[in-house]
Every structure is written in structure tokens, then in C-alpha cells.
Amino acid sequence: MSVHTNRRDFVKMAGLGALGFTILPSLYGKAAASDRLRIAHIGLGGMGNNHMKWFANLPEVDIVALCDVDELHLGETKQKLEGMKPGIKVDTYGDFRHILDRKDIDAITVATPDHWHAQIATLAFQAGKDVYGEKPLSYCMKEGKMMLKQMNKHDRIFQMGNQIHAGDNFHRVVEIIKSGAIGNVHTVRLWKKSTTKELGSPTVQAIPKTLNWDMWLGPAPYTDYIPEKCHFTYRYFLDYSGGEFADFWCHIADVVYSSIQPKGLKKINARGEAYAGIADAPKTLDVDYEFDGLKIFWSSIPPNVPGAADRGIGAFFEGDKGTLICDYNTREITINGEKMTDIATIPVTNPRSPGHQQNFVDAVKSRTQPESNLAYARELTVPMHLGLISYRLKRELTWNADKEKFVGDKEANKLLSRKPRKKWDLV
């Protein structure tokens, strides 16, 4: 199969032979509420294996296909699945497009490197499939808009894989903040303590015979193979991701967007430390965001506020009546000098999740959007993209939230999108 073809050409090629699926996206039906969900997993690194394990343990799910550009990952994951589900029949692929052209697959999960997230999800929507996609939502702003447009056009379901969104602690924090217990929140401090290490200055190596390096790169610029640019450590290169910041922003900013829905972003000012070696994503990062009536500060070290030093990741809400600090599993409220972990008089009003993956399955069956749906995920992801652009340009940026453009800055606006490599511009 030629990798120079887009998906439309791909489904027409005689080489598909045994697959034989040339059905147009509009002809795919919706899953009935009583149907079992047939799922395929695309991208089988660490998180992809988590996807496989999570969905394999859901009783109404059948895993029918696995896909990875690395034959070693593919074989290892198939073996693990067979160990969990003796006798299971699962097909394996090196090219995700074979999965998209199977009309018997209802949904996919995507745990590829970040620069592939949007194209695969968009093509899946067009192929009539629902998507559970890993964070960050997309590589750039334009991709997120494309995903949302295509999801709505094809009436699909999407859940972003920020699994902590389903946690009871975040749900309770949202209830406390929305109740007004700490008053009007005017400042939020977010942090993720940096744990990154230098990758040094490794040299080009021969591409492993088990790896389709050209397809791994996909829409990103071509470069010679260096192992440190591939698999897990890809995230420390701006051609593919945005470092720890891009990796963790949505996890902890999620509780802010769920509770106070920041609006009217105006200013973004990022400063950070660069790596000494080959990696070019920020090693550490501080970003100041100015919204309407709200300031959000991101840092790679805990801020100088009570309780932050004991938490490697966290959010600190400052209201005019008190404060609330939280991480994934703990919280502490301070009002008039009194500290507490909960306020019994605040009712439970936020429906609890049945589990992040179960929520996706339920949403697919009911044809209703899940908790961490695409519209929400896109809004949550925008400040992450803009913070990285400010870091790259090394200056404060002014943002027009209504037009979704930087004000008077062509250089910054150019970084809101990236044209894929021609041979991998599949959408």
C-alpha cells in the first residue's frame, strides 16, 4: 500500500482485497442500546496498554483489533490481551486505516503520540466510529476545531482520556467551588513539579526493522531516526508534543474548567528553562493567564501557598471568602483560618461517574456526549496551546477569545496551526 494516498483513495484501492470495505461514512449505522461494543485500540505503548486493560474488563465490550506501527508493541499487547482473555480472536494491523474501514468496529481508542491524535480521530468520525482519545486533545489549535466540526457533522461520540475527570475528589471540589463557600474565585495557581531528565545529545541510528518510522512521524516533519525522539520520550520534542506541560495541563486544569469555566482569555505570558541537550520542549515552565475577572498561574514548582509543597501536582483556588487546595485525591478548604476537608452542608449535586471508560461506553450506547466530551476538552486545551506559543516566541501575547486569534501578531497566529507533511495529510 502506498503511504502517499489519503483515506478516500485508500478505501478504493484494490489492495484492500480481503478487507473489502468501501462503505461511505454516511452509511454507517449507530450502535443500538442493546448491542455489545466492538472496540479497536490504536497506539500500544504504555497508555495504549492501559486502554486495552481498562476496556477488556468491561463486560459489554469486545476488543476485536489492535494497531501499532511498532511490531514489537503490537505483538506484546496481543500476548497480554490473550493472557487476560484466553481464546480471544483479535486482528492486528500496522496501519490504522485498515481498522477505520471495517464496518464491524463501533469505536476506537487512540493512544498514539500527540501529533497523530487529531487526524486519527477525525478520520474515525468520518468513518462512522466513536472515539476515546488520549490527551492532549490535539497537537495545535486548528486541529481541535477540525475535530469538533467533524464530530458534529458525523454525529459521533468522543471522550478525552483525562481519566482523573471521573474521580470523586474532583467532583466534590466542583460542588464546593460552585456553592460559593470560598466566595468569588479571583486567582488559581496550578502546578506540576518537574520530574524531567536531560536526554543528552544522541546521534542518528538505523531504523529498527520492526518500526515504521515514516508512519510514526506521520504529519510531523521528517527527521532521521533517533530513539529518544520515539515512543515515550517523544513528548519532549515540540514537533510531536509540548513536554510535561502538555502532558499534565489538562489533568489539573480540568478541575478549574469544571468548577468555574474561565472565560474571556486576554493575556498569556510564558517563561521557561530549556533543556541542555536534544530535547526542545520546555524543561520547566511558568505561564501567567489573564481572563475576565480571573488570573491563572501555571508553574513547574509548587507555589508559595499553604499545602502546595506537599503536593507534586495541584490547584490552589483563592476566593474572597477562603481558599481551597486540591490534587487528584485530596482537598483542604480554609475559611476564616479554619481548615476542613469537606463542608457537610453543601449537597451532592454533581452526578458521580460510573468510571471514565464505562462513561464512554454508556455514551456510545445512548448517543449522548460523555463527561469529558470534545467541546469541553477543546475549551480546556486552548490555554495549553497558547502557553506553548508564548514560550516559543519568548514574549507576552494578547488574545481575542471571540475570534480565537492573537491580536496584531502574525507570527503567533501562524503557530495556531501546522500543515501536515503532504504524504500524511489524510483528512
TrEMBL record:
Domain Gfo/Idh/MocA-like oxidoreductase N-terminal, residue spans: 37-161
GO molecular function: nucleotide binding
PROSITE patterns in the record: TAT
Domain Gfo/Idh/MocA-like oxidoreductase bacterial type C-terminal: 203-425
Pfam families in the cross-refs: GFO_IDH_MocA, GFO_IDH_MocA_C2
UniProt superkingdom: Bacteria
PANTHER family: BCDNA.GH03377 (PTHR43818), NADH-DEPENDENT DEHYDROGENASE-RELATED (PTHR43818:SF10)
Listed name of the protein: Gfo/Idh/MocA family oxidoreductase
